[in-house]
Amino acid sequence: MFATVDAQSMQRLTRDAKLEQFEDGQTIFRQGDHALHVAIVLDGFVKLTRTAACGDETLINICNVGESLYEALTPDGESYRVGAEAIGQAHLMKLSAPRFRFMLRESPALASAVIEEAARKLSGLIGEIESLKGQTAEQRLARFLLSLCPPNAESCSVRLPYDKRLIAARLGVKQETLSRAFAKLREIGVRTETRDVSIENVARLSSECCGGEREPCLPSERRDLIESRGALA
Amino acid sequence: MFATVDAQSMQRLTRDAKLEQFEDGQTIFRQGDHALHVAIVLDGFVKLTRTAACGDETLINICNVGESLYEALTPDGESYRVGAEAIGQAHLMKLSAPRFRFMLRESPALASAVIEEAARKLSGLIGEIESLKGQTAEQRLARFLLSLCPPNAESCSVRLPYDKRLIAARLGVKQETLSRAFAKLREIGVRTETRDVSIENVARLSSECCGGEREPCLPSERRDLIESRGALA
């Protein structure tokens, strides 16, 4: 996220940053809490959820290496609109929210980086809405698997980044529906063994389920980062 | 959106801005077109849609007075990620996209305004995802109606801002499902006559359908603007 921000701004921005480690399932912050920090994922995955007044919890997003939890903030920046919890072990950098806001006004490069990150997040959520409104479970699963494949692979093996219960929640389908979708994709050469997935023909998966469109969710630098940390096979 | 931007920046930003009027159903830009402009809605409503390779169209958002069509841009700003079409008559201001990007680096106030707008849009899309994943059709409709009510109204009459076919698409339900949802809400004092809706008890609608939560989609200044233009009753 900060690749284009100058060293001096970064130094000021991170002066009182905290590095924290969270264990699987540990709360990072709660929905409604006063927003003291802008958090950035340095390693692992973070689950963002909204809890309705009746107690129902909805998975909104899963953020990974290099992403800020920027969408967690309410538009006024006062409180967290969602809750955040570690999936597996996660490392985060927490920047002071007031300093972050102050620095945004001081550093055009930081402001640009935040605008770009926001554009990527908007784009991701638009893809999510399109998928929720218009796609079958197989199509959603195929799209998710394609986002894990290296850009020009003909065939590949990937490791699911988190368990199937969470993947179902992310795709907005029941667990049984996800199992049926995996079974259907087997017919076109997608095989799973626990968390390892082999895709015989990436182009076929794309053309049969997504009309040939491939829109990887992860920019390639981010994928490299995740791969180098062993989160993908 | 530009309330906090200084006059000098505004003057430079709008130097080669174009004001354009579109008729109902007229295309503003197409998905995939080269992104030459950042458009802002001055009057009316604009429908943003994604079209999949197979031709299926999904309604992503409906933007109204004072909103930019910022989410239409791809993260790299090169092309439009969605298509835009006028609903009814719409007036738009089109700013040159390269100038806009240049000015973002020059004017911290403009950058802040864009970041705030992006945060509002993210927040809106998060609400949409929560609704699509976790709410019934009645709950979605109730939430939509509540977003049209004035902040502290006990009872009120509102005019639906666009037709029921579009409302169904926005809420991600079929038209028959929307009709059934309207019929169910009648039991708790919500009456409709074509596009006029009267809500006997706003608090009851909120508590029975949304667990008492009220989260208006429209900031109050924007609602005032829409009201003064007669789009709401």
UniProtKB/TrEMBL annotation, chains A, B:
SMART domains: cNMP. Keywords: DNA-binding, Transcription, Transcription regulation. Residues 1-121 form the Cyclic nucleotide-binding domain. GO terms for cellular component: cytosol. Residues 135-203 form the HTH crp-type domain. One of its GO terms (molecular function) is DNA binding. The keyword DNA-binding applies. The keyword Transcription regulation applies. Pfam families: cNMP_binding (PF00027), HTH_Crp_2 (PF13545). This is Crp/Fnr family transcriptional regulator. It comes from Methylosinus sporium. The lineage of its organism: Bacteria, Pseudomonadati, Pseudomonadota, Alphaproteobacteria, Hyphomicrobiales.
